[in-house]
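Forwarding the complex inputs:
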Amino acid sequence: MPTPRPVFLELWRIKLPLSGVVSILHRVSGVLMVLAIPVVAILFHQALSGPEGFAATVAVLEAWPTKLTLLGLLWALFHHLMAGIRHLFLDYGVGLDRAQSRQTARLTLQAAPVLLVLSIILSFLLGD
Amino acid sequence: MSRQASGLMAWLLQRTTAIYLAFLTGYLLLKFIFDAPADHAELVAWVAHPVVAMALMLGVPLGLIHAWVGIRNVLIDYVHPTRLRLGLMTGFVFIILASGLWFLKAIITAGLGR
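Prediction (whole assembly, two chains):
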């Protein structure tokens, strides 16, 4: 029985669907945040240990390699949060049909960078 | 751990912890974007506030369960050699537990010096 669908295994033509992209980035962002847990624990403890510790933590956070890392982690948090909320709705059967699923996947992928830029702008406006 | 945090239980734990963590991280993001503690005294006062301290202390075990179930799923899916997978899982358990204890120590001792 011939199938009417185009069947091919060319790796360059096979694309992960948008929900697949959201899903794999959900995993990537989760792993990134897990790797950050011990560092955050150490910095949080140090900041609470006393005024010197607080100053030391601020110095670490204001170094530019840390700032770049923080941007990455903030993106990870936003993406993980947005994709997680989407997955919870999918678990409850909301947004399962293909058109809606594609739409929310695109929305999720766009929301994380938008929220990232928004929080950068806000912290610039509110900080000095 | 593996018996309690596997299969349906892991699935359920991942979703229930996610809901709490979504609210907690939402609050933390707003707090640190709009009203970040400016010095040590402010940070201690914030952490030692009973509601904040309780929310954070509940967030530690829930966050670590969420992290563990997630990293376990990733390791099971992508790391196939059994010894390597078990080694990595053990390493992550140690790191996650140690970090959790360190977080709790920081929160509990925050108000003591005042």
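Chain A touches chain B at residues 27, 30-31, 33-34, 37-38, 40-42, 44-45, 47-51, 53-54, 77, 81, 84-85, 88, 91, 119, 122-123, 126 (CB under 8 Å).
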